[in-house]
From TrEMBL, chains A, B:
This is IMP dehydrogenase. The keyword Oxidoreductase applies. The lineage of its organism: Bacteria, Bacillati, Actinomycetota, Actinomycetes, Kitasatosporales. It comes from Streptomyces hoynatensis. It holds the Pfam family ADH_N. Gene3D superfamilies: Medium-chain alcohol dehydrogenases, catalytic domain, NAD(P)-binding Rossmann-like Domain. Residues 25-136 form the Alcohol dehydrogenase-like N-terminal domain. Its cofactor is Zn(2+). Keywords: Metal-binding, Oxidoreductase, Zinc. One of its GO terms (molecular function) is zinc ion binding. The keyword Oxidoreductase applies.
Amino acid sequence: MRATLMYGAGDVRVENVPDPVVSLPTDALVRIAASCICGSDLWPYGSMQPQDRPVRMGHEFIGIVEDIGSEVTTLRRGDLVVAPFAVSDNACPFCREGLHTSCAHPRAGFWGGTGEGGQAEAIRVPLADGTLVKLPVAPDSALLPSLLTLSDVLGTGHHAAVTGGVDERTRVTVIGDGAVGLLAVLAARRLGAERIVLMGRHRARTDLGRAFGATDVVPARGGEGIEQVRELTGGEGTHVVLECVGTRSAYEQALGIVRRGGVVSRVGIPQYEDAPVGFGSLFRHNIRLAGGPAPVRAYIEELMPDILDGTIEPGRVFDAATPLDGIPAGYRDMADRKSLKVLIRP
Amino acid sequence: MRATLMYGAGDVRVENVPDPVVSLPTDALVRIAASCICGSDLWPYGSMQPQDRPVRMGHEFIGIVEDIGSEVTTLRRGDLVVAPFAVSDNACPFCREGLHTSCAHPRAGFWGGTGEGGQAEAIRVPLADGTLVKLPVAPDSALLPSLLTLSDVLGTGHHAAVTGGVDERTRVTVIGDGAVGLLAVLAARRLGAERIVLMGRHRARTDLGRAFGATDVVPARGGEGIEQVRELTGGEGTHVVLECVGTRSAYEQALGIVRRGGVVSRVGIPQYEDAPVGFGSLFRHNIRLAGGPAPVRAYIEELMPDILDGTIEPGRVFDAATPLDGIPAGYRDMADRKSLKVLIRP
């Protein structure tokens, strides 16, 4: 079959690879109906050292179950399913607490670590009963793009808002106008926030952010951006800052914006290890730090009904679509910010 | 009157200073009945550069109201009162949310910033209506030492447990066997925690920690300490780690001990600014970071009844007492760990 491989920074290829098969009794084989390129794929696309053993790409997909192992009990051939970006058994203590991204099963983990990727024609899914969730629509449903966001970006934006404690009493700033940032806006609105400041400088994206619920847009960054958000909030800053970028400068921007006693919730993968947390940053005013890889599996049941009944339309983050062969161009367009998020239809 | 002044590291003197007076209509003048030396006083005692203008010391006291300004409405001469370690108006939006240490009033702040200190015969208290809390006991009550802990160390231990989300479902580790650490144990037990690991190496202190509710004591630090706590908790670590020291090594120890999805709650004043917060430390497993200067004013009404009825006896952290003249020796004894916490009876 055809699959997407990254050989190094800027070097993504769609190549022939061996067809995946069910190899463990808990596996499923899924024929992919829709997948996509993630903003987080752009980190290695920008910086990966060239290597002989390329990495299989893609951690968001919807597909049709084509085969199952002997121990798979909740799925059948022909089921349409969505996969979270992390494999989990949905049964260990962490999964039961809703922290599927910290699943204790030895075969749990992120796609890529499994040797498989979703930007392909098909995929072997480990721990299929725990990982996959059935979708109650037909494979040609117009809802597929929105349902695909359940695999990562919608659940990730929702996680930012949940771990930030967003509700109707909190004012919120979202840093970043990528797909996750925009869906963090949508999630914050959905959880009741009435004042949502979106920090981003790409007009088409921030316009979508406004459609999702942003009440204010601040294109400025750094000190100027901080000052503008403070001006919008009577000098106080916002109770919650959803940091959806992952750079240290975005973290520092969040520190400048968060209200005393507030929360900085991070879902952008940190591209730094050390950062200010002492008396002059977090400690003095009891600022809390939250977030991490979203346990999107825990949120699918809650979020899916709102997609099915049209309350939310997160699939609007897809502004381009391509078959497999167009994936290298899709990476380029996303890196160049010509595309917000590219849908893949194998 | 006599008051305590710090001139530099290791140089604490009790000297004659001008008598304090009511200078603003919101002030009160309080004759001090009991105060004490704080673990946090040992940071400047260990490192302060010598200076010409010494710093007034002491931020925990109980005393009798001797005079009040014309706008003070809730206090009368003769009232016995306890003062939190931060001055606040108890009226601004932050105070109303229970975050008195971030009070927005321009005259709010920590003692010392006020030019006053509690290790003295008397003290001028700004924003007296907001700051002081009346005590329903006589000045010679045997409960005074326990009630004095409401001014800082009990409320600080309680704050660690509250911001850590301690309840009957959480396992807890407390790092540090100083007065705050020991009272964090007491607070965690009071909030329902059934498994409390105390990390400390001073037998007399950890014995008091056991009396306060610690179920396990781990004297080892660093990697060895982390391993021992993990062994005690089935490899998982504890849901909450209350970091009551303030060093970067204590922070890193907390990272090693906290369970996936758990909380590191800090109340020891950080002696560092940057620390690990990235994918390899907090982010990967959704570890949250919480804590800061405790808004002890917010907790006094909740905690005082348990002292009055004998349910808790936090005053047991005082293992020495001295009149004013013994304060320099008291600092030395606490720095040398001969005393846990020194009570001052002017």
